[in-house]
Design a protein that fits this description.
By secondary structure, the chain is mainly α. It is 78% helix and 0% strand. It folds into two domains: 133 residues, no CATH class; 109 residues, Orthogonal Bundle (Arc Repressor Mutant, subunit A). Helix 4 runs parallel beside helix 6.
Length: 252
């Protein structure tokens, strides 16, 4: 059985080596892929889409008539790289799994060239939007990075400074002081901002009742959730949900 797989892999590998030799753009492929990933993580939509177009061109030229599989495999590889970044950020394994699964379903739903080109642009913009809306900013201080990672892992729990400090083996007062100095906000404010950012996704894309969303993210009650949400966004959860529904209806 293993010999069969070894032989099959070797045939694919040798085929790709032969196809790659005469292709001028193939040497730029990995450089562009790294630049695309960097642009996505830096939330630079313009640069990311420019790199994407160049990569699509290389793949379309190389793939000949098999461009559907070539582009699908490429998008899947990008999804894997971003999923790894999500893991480093401390996003929970379950959320990474669901995110990756949804991406795979979307990618395999594109079976025409036009869908693959436009879908690729949507895919990159969606990755950037997820980073902007749901992921934490990058902090240089190692203690802050560790604290942020813990917060991301516990978004659906009651997150207290004391419990985070205990896990990081520092005093609560030291953690609170360093976090405020480095992040420009209290750790509690940061926890709220992350919970609200995640809750916005549920309000935008689901019909889950607001009371259930409040409970999911361990707010003591819906009134407190509404208070925190309004402090962060300037509107109540219901107002935000209605605004997102109106945008979907108008295509804005």
């Amino acid at each position: 059985m293993n010999e069969h797989y070894d032989q099959q892999f070797a045939s694919f590998y040798m085929r790709d080596l032969e196809l790659s030799e005469p292709h001028k753009g193939i040497m730029d492929y990995f450089r562009l892929q790294d630049e695309l990933r960097t642009a996505v993580l830096n939330k630079n939509s313009f640069e990311a889409l420019e790199h994407l177009k160049q990569l699509q061109s290389i793949l379309l030229n190389r793939a000949s008539g098999d461009y559907i599989n070539a582009l699908q495999r490429f998008y899947l590889s990008q999804m894997v790289l971003i999923a790894d970044e999500m893991k480093q950020m401390g996003i929970s394994p379950m959320k990474i799994f669901c995110f990756s699964s949804a991406c795979i379903d979307m990618i395999y739903s594109w079976t025409e060239k036009e869908d693959l080109i436009k879908g690729g642009e949507w895919f990159i913009q969606t990755l950037i939007r997820h980073i902007e809306e749901r992921f934490h900013p990058t902090y240089e201080h190692p203690l802050i990075r560790q604290a942020v990672k813990v917060v991301n892992q516990r978004l659906e729990d009651v997150v207290e400074v004391e419990s985070i400090a205990r896990e990081l083996s520092v005093s609560p007062s030291h953690l609170a002081k360093v976090f405020r100095q480095e992040a420009g906000m209290t750790l509690k404010q940061f926890c709220h901002s992350r919970k609200v950012a995640e809750a916005k996704y549920y309000l935008h894309y689901s019909f889950v009742p607001i009371s259930d969303i409040s409970e999911r993210f361990s707010f003591c009650n819906q009134s407190y959730f509404t208070k925190v949400f309004k402090e962060q966004t300037g509107m109540t959860p219901l107002q935000y949900r209605r605004q997102m529904q109106e945008r979907r209806m108008t295509g804005a």
